[in-house]
Amino acid sequence: MSSEFVISMAEKAVYVTLMISGPLLAIALLVGLIVSIFQATTQIQEQTLAFIPKIVAVLLALIFFGPWMLSTILSFTTELFSNLNRFAG
To answer: Which of 26, 51, 53, 62 has the most Cβ atoms closer than 10 angstroms to its Cβ?
Structure first.
């Protein structure tokens, strides 16, 4: 197992992690920004107003993006396990 192979697998793992977490983080960021703008314009300083819409939006995004996320992680895991003999040898 060469160092290039290890770096390649680590690079793929980081890429898959970013691809899976990216949509949920982007939606949470967007909803948080919208709620913050709403709070600033209406001068409402309720703490729960910031968290509940983000939780609901991320939950809905998880339902929407869940199958794609699962297929992405399964294909990476399948590739990882199919090349297991290259790791040990």
So the answer is: 53
